[in-house]
Design goal:
The complex is a heterodimer. Chain A is α/β, with parallel strands linked by helices. Chain A is built from 18 helices and 11 strands. In chain A, the strands form 3 sheets. In chain A, strands 2-1-3-11-6 form a 5-stranded mixed β-sheet. By secondary structure, chain B is mainly alpha-helical. Chain B folds into 2 domains: 46 residues, no CATH class; 230 residues, MetI-like fold, CATH 1.10.3720. Chain B contains 14 helices and 2 strands; from the N terminus they run ααββαααααααααααα. In chain B, strands 1-2 form a two-stranded antiparallel ribbon. The model of chain B has no long low-confidence stretch (mean pLDDT 86). Classes of the chains: A alpha/beta, B mainly alpha.
């Protein structure tokens, strides 16, 4: 029955794809009508690959002289591949970009400057907020156009909450989070998991960020925030309601399929809002969303809107005008986004958003409502991660594991990450 | 080439000498292996030279390589405790798993030499783990077996031993789970042992029995000495493989818990593709080459002491 339904839906979708372009916007010729092949790369999952391929077909229907070569990859392999392609000057014409990586791609001059195409009207940004444009800009020039908005969120298991008879609040303080975790464990036996991602949020709560503005050191003068973080990890690791480090080796939280929330080992998962559909469908049940917990003495709201994914043109492309035209189509065309359905996050073009709001699935409605809530309180997003941040991530997760096993004290871990991290950052800045 | 003073016939002569040149046996030989040589140069030698150069640089793939001399090598042995940990893990793994695997292979091969109708079947069955052994699927299965709610614990509980231990999550047992996986994949060594055992003439055993030697005595006096070339070969191959182990650590534990299964090749991979520290990873690769080369040389130089070749003496 389910298969039948999805078949019908797919057919309906295909039909609408075939019919819609006729009614759509006026079509300008690209590349002077000469045939060209555009290579395009993105990371994602099967759903995203299917939807994106459909939109590429729509674009080819509008511009028969443009054909696409697609290079979809999973997140893990994507950056290895892109970096290798960059090293061998064989980058795809268009590639999906992550906010954290814009800085390093910019410093290597790998992204095409989109500003001239905004000025000549190829890319229409009139209905996109300046904050969103800013997130894809470096030194006042637009290099990457955002494909969707996201926000960090805390997923919780609705079934566990109703079994424990607890109403989920919008945002907890950390003390409330701990007592809630304890209560849930006592009533249902379901445990809690606290992620390394929390560290960045603790920094935000103090009104600063993990990395200093120039990216050559951490965003604080001392290791106090690190100490708070590692102390929290040490404290919860002693509690029966927190998942044991042994179990985390088995149920790797960084792979969707093995996340401890999937089989209800834990009730929570620190993640991003656009993961709702993926995690819910993997778990086979609907999850709820909360904002990330805050410290009682926090000065700043931790929650922010995040431009989750971008499209960039590569500097080596032979068809910059086609690249610009396609990116504009992908982001601002209502027809294209009716197919994409905000799978990459909530659309940034206000026209598109309005057109999409009808006909959302229940799960999508939850996500859109959450983004709406966040929008009311959100503070600006952190700057893109500096060079060397991936080494810092490794350092932090290594030390977190040591603290979880009780191998070193929180103070030692904090001192070590502060000293070694600053060293890595300054070495990479040179 | 000879000097050709007669310029008038030069063109004709040149053509003849070219066909002569091509017809020479050595040239034909080189032509035949040229495909391999080109492949070897392009895919092995040139990348190796490149990686040797990169090992002296700070290179993050995206940017240009910056020459930093021996800094990567110095850092490895002076300031990178994780590197030293990965070294000790790999040495421990190789020194424990290789002898165990060979012992296992030898025992099973000895049993297999007894003829019965099912021998062929058993041989295939015992070789099976080696065929599928390196695969991702087996590693995933192994992870299922040894997880806290896995098959091993269920069996233990059925035997009324109350075990909820996470074998792969506990730092004392994780490495042993991986060693066990390696030992279980003894099939290819076993086949080589089988071939070696069959080479030993039956007459030796008959003569020994006549002289009143028991089974144990024949094993130590005949089987083992005559099998030493085979053991030697297996030891070299398995030691090399042992130092290059990657799959099981990557899939089952990802080097965790507490880096207790952080194999050398796994750490190298993480440095290269997680941290983008490509220069450092290249330096690590060269040290690994030296280590494997040294270990192999060590085994080779020891062979005079214990390997017995029948043809010699």
């Amino acid at each position: 029955m389910k298969k039948m339904l999805s078949l019908v839906l797919t057919l309906a979708l295909l039909l609408s794809v075939m019919v819609l372009p006729a009614s759509a916007e006026t079509v300008k010729e690209v590349n002077g009508g000469e045939p060209c092949t555009i290579r395009i790369a993105w990371w994602g999952n099967q759903t995203r690959n299917d939807l994106t391929t459909q939109v590429l077909a729509m674009y080819t229907a509008l511009h028969p002289n443009v054909t696409f070569e697609t290079e979809p990859t999973a997140w893990d392999g994507y950056w290895d591949k892109l970096a290798t392609q960059a090293a061998t000057s064989s980058m795809p014409d268009i590639f999906q970009q992550d906010y954290g990586k814009i800085g390093s791609f910019f410093s290597q001059n790998l992204m095409m400057d989109l500003t001239p195409y905004v000025e000549n009207g190829t890319i229409d940004v009139s209905r996109i907020s300046s904050a969103v444009l800013e997130s894809g800009s470096m030194e006042g020039k637009l290099y990457a156009l955002c494909l969707g908005l996201n926000s960090p969120c805390l997923f919780y298991d609705k079934e566990t909450f109703s079994a424990a008879g607890i109403e989920a609040p919008v945002q907890l303080t950390w003390d409330e989070f701990f007592s809630l975790s304890k209560e849930i464990y006592e009533k249902t036996g379901t445990q809690t998991y606290i992620d390394t991602m929390v560290l960045g949020m603790l920094f935000r709560g103090k009104g600063t960020s993990l990395y200093a503005e120039d990216g050559t050191r951490f965003g604080t003068e001392d290791d106090s925030v690190f100490r708070t973080y590692f102390q929290m990890i040490a404290d919860v690791s002693k509690e029966a309601w927190h998942v044991s480090p042994e179990l985390l080796v088995e149920k790797n939280p960084s792979v969707t399929e093995t996340m401890p929330i999937i089989d209800k080992t834990t009730w929570d998962s620190f993640s991003n809002s656009n993961q709702l559909t993926t995690i819910s469908s993997t778990a086979g049940r609907e999850l709820g969303m909360m904002m990330w917990p805050v410290m009682a003495d926090d000065t700043t709201q931790v929650q922010y809107l995040k431009s989750s994914q971008f499209f960039c043109g590569s500097t080596s492309t032979k068809y910059p005008d086609v690249v610009a035209d396609f990116i504009n189509f992908f982001v601002t065309s209502v027809d294209a986004n009716l197919v994409l359905k905000g799978e990459r996050g909530v659309p940034v073009d206000s026209n598109v958003l309005a057109a999409l709001s009808d006909g959302l699935s229940d799960l999508d409605k939850v996500m859109y409502a959450f983004i709406d809530e966040v929008n009311k309180v959100a503070t600006p997003m952190d700057r893109p991660n500096p060079n060397g941040s991936s080494q810092i991530d490794t350092l932090i997760s290594d030390l977190t594991e040591l603290v979880r096993y009780g191998e070193i004290s929180p103070e030692e871990a904090a001192a070590q990450v502060f000293a070694e991290g600053n060293e890595i950052l300054s070495a990479n800045a040179q | 080439m000879t000097v050709m003073p007669d310029t008038g016939h030069a063109k004709r002569k040149k053509a003849t000498s070219l066909s002569e040149f091509l017809c020479r046996e050595s040239v034909a030989g080189y032509m035949f292996i040229s495909l391999f040589i080109i492949g070897f140069l392009v895919f092995t030698i040139i990348p190796m030279i490149a990686s040797l150069y990169l090992s002296f640089t700070n290179y993050n793939i995206l940017g240009d390589a910056k020459w930093i001399g021996f800094a990567n090598y110095v850092k490895m042995f002076t300031r990178d405790s994780k590197y030293l940990k990965s070294l000790s893990v790999t040495f421990f793994y190789a020194f424990v798993s290789v002898p165990l695997k060979l012992l296992m292979a030898l025992i099973v091969a000895m049993i297999m030499t007894h003829q019965s109708r099912l021998t062929g079947f058993y041989r295939s069955v015992y070789y099976l783990p080696s065929i599928i052994g390196g695969s991702v699927a087996v590693a995933v299965m192994w992870k299922q077996l040894f997880s806290s709610d896995g098959v091993i614990n269920s069996v233990l509980q059925a035997l009324s031993i109350n075990s909820t231990k996470s074998w792969i999550g506990s730092r004392d047992t994780a490495i042993w789970v991986l060693i066990l996986l390696t030992v279980w994949q003894f099939g290819s060594s076993m086949l080589i042992f089988l071939a070696g055992l069959k080479q030993i003439p039956r007459t030796y055993y008959e003569a020994a029995t006549m002289d009143g030697a028991g089974k144990t005595r024949s094993f130590f006096a005949i089987t083992l000495p005559l099998l030493t070339p085979t053991i030697f070969f297996n030891l070299v191959m398995q030691t090399i493989n042992g130092f290059m182990v990657f799959n099981s650590g990557y899939i089952i534990t990802q080097g965790k818990p507490l880096n207790s299964t952080l194999f050398y090749a796994l750490y190298l991979y993480q440095k290269a593709f997680t941290d983008y520290d490509m220069g450092y990873a290249c330096a690590m690769a060269w040290i690994l080459l030296l280590i494997i080369g040294f270990m192999t040389a060590l085994i080779f130089s020891s062979q005079k002491r214990w390997v017995f070749y029948q043809g010699e003496r």
